[in-house]
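An instance noted here:
***
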Amino acid sequence: MSIRRLRRNPKILGDVNMVTEDLKNLYYKRLLPIEKYYSFHHFHSPSYQDADFDNKPMVLVMGQYSTGKTTFIRYLIEQDFPGSRVGPEPTTDCFTAIMHGEMEGIIPGNALTADPKKPFRNLDPFGNAFLNRFQCVQMPNRVLESISIIDTPGILTAAKRKLSRGYDFPAVLRWFAERVDRIILLFDAHKLEFSDELTRAFGALSGYEDKLRVVLNKADRVDSQQLMRVYGALMWSLGKVFRTPEILRVYVGSFWSEPRQVCEHYELIELEEEDLLADIRNLPQNAVVRKLNDLVKRARLVRAHAHIISYLKQEMPTIFCKESKKHNLIYQLPVIFTKIQQQHRVPAGDFPDCTKMQERLLGQDFSKFKTLKPSLMASLDKLLTTDIPKLVPLLQQQELRKKSLHGMLDGEFLGTFRPEHYRRDPFKELKDDDSNEKDFDEWVVERYKPKYDEIFYNLSPNEGKLSGTKVREWMSTTLLPKSVLAHIWRLSDIDGDGMLDNDEFALAVHLIEGKLEGHWLPRELPSHLVPPSKRLSTVSDEE
């Protein structure tokens, strides 16, 4: 259990927290004064808060309506969350931050932006029209102890493009894109439609392509020939929108916990699922690296911004023709960018989008701009050339330690755990007032065992046991996701010998049947499901 090991080894957590604290101190000491001096937040994103450094990694899930966004989140956490609805029509009409909390509850948007412990305080400028469509769901969940998930409204199709949301939807997406660790963009294999709002949403993600993971969902519902055509059409459309030389990775999958339909590309779906979920599983380990990367990216943008503001200030006349000169400078902004690149050796990639910068300059008073302040620029250079490089060895030491630890339990991210306090759980151990020790002497699987034994002996056990290969081949015929079957195997192989005897196999079949009926699997095997022949061994193991 890697989480337990991590908790037992405070030195590793200490290293992570130390790097985070150093990043926070460097931002407040080196970068924030320059941002304030040159009014950086008037042109770009607001200043960072403590919560932006201290919060857990966040995953932004977005896509058109009915692409499976909410179902994907339920698949990750294997749990319904308050306010979630699933349907073919647009059901998610608000941004929902799904976070860990000891008690289940919903926090509305206006109250959420007032909480200094949450990284959402800078959403205030979007106004009530957005905050009324923003909420935070807190709930006890093992997955949410390590990551937070942002569910988004379905992107409108061309038929609904005339509808207005009442707030700047692309701007909100860009605000989240800057702060999250991963962006999951879902498409439905049945319908590929690039609407105007989807194109604008892509524009909001510009510059954050490294965080983006594209998923072609519900791929088991089409045959291989159709999948090939849909995949090709999606890649072609993405290539037109994201004008980058590298090709975006598209994951083909069917992300829910129900049995998948039989298809020729079933194995491909399993492999793609493992790749994507492994990427999400590594987010908590790489969170500090992402924060450092974002801080460096922001510092470079601040440096370019300071040079732009200083140049505009120097070019402005003292008394006459201020307004005409201002408009002339805005018009010549592309040329000014080139001059600054040559004079100060600022890389072209550090500059903001020229068109957006021109739009924002129109409403500014150039006479209030500041010229370059050598002490602030020297502090910024020290941040980039000295302070940040000093933190890199600490990150490398952290990487070395991570290799000696197991990754987080697959099942926690592969949709196989469910808190034990939910109803309609046939695997839950019920303790009523009338129960006594005799109730637990009976094994609940015993009544179905003749049927399970017939399957067991038809698979030709060797010396009373079935090998893992034989069990895996039989389990695969149920069409449950491989992640779910892996958790069932872990629960069933009680003695941990890599094989199943007739009791262990009966338990595995019982768990599979319960899952196929729509129930949730237990996180750990309850005592009433432990075969009588294994109860002594489990007791001795606990001792």
User: Anything to note?
Assistant: The mean pLDDT is 80. Strands lie at 58-63, 95-100, 105-108, 134-139, 148-151, 182-188, 212-217, 250-252, 466-467, 499-500. Residues 283-315 form the longest helix (33 residues).
